[in-house]
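#struct-help
A.M.: can someone run this one for me? Single chain, 223 residues.
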Amino acid sequence: MLNEKPKKKKDYSDPTKWQMFWRVQRECWRRMVTPYLMYLFMGLILLSLQAIVPDENNVVEIVLGVLCILGGAFFNAHLMYHTGVLHYDNYITGEIHRRNARYGIQSGGDHRPEREYRAWKGFYIGFLVGLPVIFFGVLAHYFYEAASLFFGMFAGWALIPIAWFGTLEGGGLRVDALWSLLFVLLPVLVSGIAYLIGAHVEKERKLRASERDEKIKAAGKKK
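D.P.: on it. Structure tokens below:
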């Protein structure tokens, strides 16, 4: 038992191109789940409010609906801001690993480069959040009666605002369901901008910390 070799840790820091591609996909899909759930919950609340508020109070419906959508966007921004902070921190760690590798120093195989900051990742994650809107929006364009219930449940924040323009006597929308695809821009822009801001704030924080350390070292040398 004493002679058993310790298990060698997997080295995640140097994936192949295909491994990197699929790891990035997995990371981005993982990061889109919680923002999507925030929109889902706010969409369900929006759907409930539309059923509760009397039809003649159209202004109240719109105001409450906008507040629900903005609530989902707020949580989306909050989550993606922290993702930007985390990814930038991983990017700095990756830069240290790559710098050490150039000098032949192997440092830590547990670093995951797929979690490093890239400016496009926030926008891509936002696009993934909007995929249900694209799917159900296109489906509702051709088969509104069959798709509208699921559209309202899973992406009501994009469908219900279209219904504010009015409905037909048969129950359909006066406005084509394809217009709901414009709402994909909401998570794309919110996610992308919040991600960039989070990374920028973390970059500035690290620069200030580095400058503070340099001042402390300089002060120590003067003594």
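A.M.: thanks! The longest helix spans residues 58-102.
D.P.: also worth noting: The chain has a mean pLDDT of 88.
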